[in-house]
Amino acid sequence: MKKDPQKIAAQIIELVSELATLAGAPVVSRSAKLHKSAVIEKKDMSGATGGIRSLVGEGKLDSPKQLPEIKEFLRQEGRHYSTPTISMGLLNLVRPPERLLTRFRDKGDKKWKYAIRK
């Protein structure tokens, strides 16, 4: 019998909320998010790194993208940054402690492509 992880998570949240009520602690919201996007929303959304985080939250980096494509996504949102600034933001999200993105070289033109780490 295979159980649905989302149903199990909802049950856990409900039980924790009930326990918190009994203990007199603040109640946990039943609509708590269980995805990386919840972590992304708590992070600073300013600057190029914040803009890239918003792209991740929107799912625009679900498939691998090169730097010019990412720069164009940011420009469409009204965030105008130089290429080195965006490149540094991407690198910050690839390296620890963030490790939100992964990058790899495309075999054809040997340029970096960035995607959400899964």
CATH architecture annotation name of the largest domain: Orthogonal Bundle
Question: CA-to-CA gap between the ends?
Answer: 26 Å
Helix share of residues? 40-55%
Total number of beta strands: 3
Instruction: Return the average pLDDT rounded to an integer.
Output: 85
Q: What fraction of the residues are assigned to beta strands by DSSP?
A: 5-15%
Which class of the largest domain in CATH terms?
A: Mainly Alpha
CATH homologous superfamily assignment of the largest domain: Winged helix-like DNA-binding domain superfamily/Winged helix DNA-binding domain
Radius of gyration: 18 Å
The strands making up the biggest β-sheet line up spatially as 1-3-2
* Uncertain ranges: 30-41
Give the overall shape: elongated
Class per helix and strand makeup = mainly alpha
The total of helices stands at 5
User: How many domains make up the coordinates?
Assistant: 2
CATH fold node name of the largest domain: Arc Repressor Mutant, subunit A
Order of helices and strands: HHHEHHEE
- In terms of quaternary structure, the protein is single chain
**Biggest β-sheet description:** 3 strands, antiparallel
Characterise this structure.
The chain has 118 residues and is mainly alpha-helical. It has 2 domains: 1-34, no CATH class; 35-116, Orthogonal Bundle (Arc Repressor Mutant, subunit A), CATH 1.10.10.10. Helices cover 51% and strands 10% of the residues. The chain has helices at residues 5-23, 36-42, 47-58, 67-76, 83-94, and strands at residues 65-66, 101-105, 112-116. Helix 2 (36-42) runs antiparallel to helix 3 (47-58) and helix 3 (47-58) packs across helix 5 (83-94). The radius of gyration is 18 Å and the shape is elongated. The chain starts with a helix and ends with a strand.
